[in-house]
Design goal:
alpha+beta; 6-stranded antiparallel beta sheet; 6 helices
């Protein structure tokens, strides 16, 4: 039905603003309630009206308040949600639906503009067992109490974050290879796995495999490479960091996200110097110091409109392998 100024809005159309779940006609409950797939924030659903019952100003205001609360979190601007009193006119259906679809698009993208998120403390840290000259490979996982909680977390802007550091030289002095690792660490910065994308906060070096357009919703039960970053210049241009992610099941039922972090040094000729042949050279001149991969989460908060938020149930070190 087409509306004109002064027309009454039908009860089933009002209910559609609450419960709609089809493309272009999303309702607030699908966006902020249970939802499905990339929709839903786990908030309490609004109650619809019965056929033939006059819709009250208070019901419209409940809808508008719900929309405004989500918009405050997603940082979207709405045009149709000013509070109403009995006798006031309601914005055209098209304006309301446009605003609802805007909110739906933001949630489906993982609320990329949300600022009501906060990084938590270190969940897991995996440190190399000693100086090494081959690879340091780590797998960390985060697990949710249900698939719905996983969806709500990432839909609201939650992130699984990796931080990479080098914790000293392992008893020797820093080497040229350590300097190269430090450059790689700076180039990665914080590595974030989000709803539909992945990002690194650092810049530089060579992005030899670019999977950054992928997020948790693109993952399956096999590892998906999100990034391979290779040393761009200097002596160690075969050195690279690779980050991958996988789920424990299809995205519709998964509860665990696992990320695999690798620092690989394929460079040859890195034999350890032995006592009597060092000629005042560090025994581990061609080795890399003690590297450390750490997992954090950046979790949604209630600071800007959401009544409740969801987070992980647990985290774990799946593996930590140093190959010298």
């Amino acid at each position: 039905m087409a509306y004109a100024a002064g027309d009454s809005i039908l009860d089933d159309h009002y209910n559609g603003f609450l419960t709609g779940s089809s493309a272009g006609a999303y309702g607030i409950n699908h966006i902020q309630g249970t939802g499905a797939g990339e929709y839903g924030l786990g908030l309490t659903a609004l109650t619809g009206t019965s056929a033939g019952v006059t819709i009250q100003a208070s019901q419209w205001n409940s809808l508008f308040t719900g929309m405004d609360n989500v918009a405050n979190h997603t940082n979207d601007t709405l045009t149709s949600t000013a509070a109403r009193s009995a006798g006031d006119s309601i914005a055209f259906v098209s304006a309301l639906q446009t605003d609802l679809n805007t909110l739906a698009a933001s949630v489906a993208a993982g609320s990329p503009n949300a600022t009501a998120v906060a990084e938590g403390g270190e969940l897991q840290s995996s440190v190399a067992s000693a100086r090494w000259n081959n690879s340091h490979i780590v797998e960390h996982s985060i697990t949710f109490s249900s698939n719905a909680h996983l969806r709500y977390f990432f839909n609201a802007g939650g992130t699984m974050r990796m931080k990479f550091t080098r914790n000293g030289n392992g008893g020797g002095s820093a080497t040229d290879k350590d300097d190269s690792v430090d450059e790689m660490i700076t180039a990665v910065g914080n590595f974030d796995l989000k709803q539909t994308t992945s990002t690194r906060s650092g810049t530089g070096e060579t992005l030899t495999t670019d999977g950054l357009a992928n997020g948790v919703r693109d993952c399956s039960t096999s590892y998906l490479v999100l990034m391979r970053l290779t040393q761009s210049s200097g002596t160690y241009t075969t050195m690279y960091i690779q980050v991958s992610a996988k789920l424990d099941a299809a995205i519709a039922t998964a509860v665990t996200v696992t990320m695999r972090y690798e620092l690989n040094d394929p460079d040859t000729g890195d034999d350890e110097y032995t006592s009597g042949n060092t000629s005042s050279i560090d025994q581990y001149e061609n080795f890399i110091g003690i590297t450390d991969f750490a997992t954090h989460i950046v979790a949604p908060t209630t600071a800007q409109g959401l009544a409740s938020v969801y987070t992980i149930a647990s985290s774990a070190v799946v593996s930590n392998t140093t190959n010298a």
